[in-house]
Amino acid sequence: MKVLGFTAAVALLTGALFGVLPTLRFTRVPLGDPLRGSAVSQTERRSNWHRWIVASQIALSLALLVTAGLFLRSFVKLALTDTCLARKNVLLVTASLWSTPIKAEDRPATLNAIQARLGALPGVISVGRSEDVPLSGRRSAYYIYADRPNAPSGDDSVSLTMFMSPGYFSSMGMAMLSGRDFTDSDSQTAPRVAVVNQGFARKFFGPVNPIARVIHIAPNLRPGPPIEVVGIVADADYRSLRAQKPPTAFFPIQQYPEREGKVIFEVRTAGRLTGLENAVERAVASVNREIPLEFNTLERLVNDAMVQERLLAMLSVFFGAVALLLAMIGLYGTMNYRVTLRRSEFGIRMALGAQASGIVRLVIRDVAIILLVGEAAGIGISLVAATALRSLLFGLGPRDATTILGAALLLGCVALLAGYLPARRASHVDPMVALKYE
Description:
Largest sheet: 6 strands, mixed, barrel
Structural class: alpha+beta
C-alpha cells in the first residue's frame, strides 16, 4: 500500500506541476524583434526552462511506466505459474460436524457416507475430503523424524502436514510419482502409512528412495508410532503461490478420526460446476440435514491468492497511463509554444527555400533531445525505484531489461507523436504571414 500511495502521489504531482501548468502558459506568446528587443530572448529562456521541466516529466513518467510494467509482468507470470493443482472444475465443500449432535465416534461413518453420495452424482470424476486445502491460509506442521542416519532433527525436522481421504490427490490433480495412493483399507486399525511430496523426500531421505521407509510424527519432540511411506506425489503450492513448495507429509484422515470435526470435500467434475451446489446440498441432506455447508472453488481460491498482485498491476497501469497522457500533453504544449515562438524563423527559412520536411525534422530534433534527456534520467530513476520493489515482484528482477526497454519505446512513440503535431503545423507556416510579425 505504501508503494501504491507513493506511485499515486508522484503521478498527481507530475500531472499538476509538469503537465497542466506549462500548457496553460503556452496560450499567449510575447513577440518581439530578435535584433532590437529582449522580449523574444526572455521568452526563449522561459521556453528552455519549460523544456527541462518536460524532460523531468518524461523521466518520472518513464519511472512510473517501468513500475507498471514490472507489476503487470509479475502478475502475468504469477497467474501462469504451474501450481500442480487442477484449478478448473473443482468444487470445495466445507462441512462442519462440530455444531451437529453427531457423536464423535459416528463422524467418520457419516463423512464416508457423504463422500460416497457425492461420488455418485452425475458428472463427478472423483471426490476426496481433507482437513485443509492448499492456499486456504490454514496450515498444520509437526516435527517429523525419519529412520535413517543423520536425518533432520529439532527445528530442522518441522514439516507441513495434511490429512485426507482416498481420492484427494486425484480430485486436486496432484500427480502420483511412485508408490500408491491411500485406499479404504488404510483404516484406523491398519498399519499407519503416509505419502510424501518431492520436497519431503529430498529433505528427509536425500538420494534414498523413501518408499517403504519409516517416519514418525513427534508433536512433543517424542517420536510417535512408526509410519510407513507408501507413495510420493509431485510438489504443489500449499501455502502461497510465491513461497517455495514446502516439504509436506500426507496422512490418511481415517487413521486420525479426531480430525474429522470439520472437513472439506473436493469434488472434481468432467464439466462445468453449474448447478452442482444444489445437487451437493441434496446429497448431504440425504445423509444428515443438520450439517452446515460452505461452497468455494479451487479456481477462486487460486485467484484470491493473487489479489495483491492484481491490485498492484491494475493501479500501477492506471497511474502509468495517466503519466503517459500527461507527458504527451506537456510535450505537446512545450513544442506548440516553441513552434509559435519560432514562427518567423520558420517563415524566413521557407522563404529562403527550405522544404516542409526540413522544418518537420528541425522540430522533431528538438523533441528527440528532450526525449533522450528525459529517458536517460528516467532509466536511472527506474533502476533505483525498481530495486525498492524487489520483494513485490515475482519471476523477474527489478532491472528487467525487457520491461525497461518496452516502457522507453512506448514513451518514445507517444512523445514523438505529441511532437509531430506541432512540427506538422510548423511546416505549413506561410512565409508572407510569418514575416508580417517582424
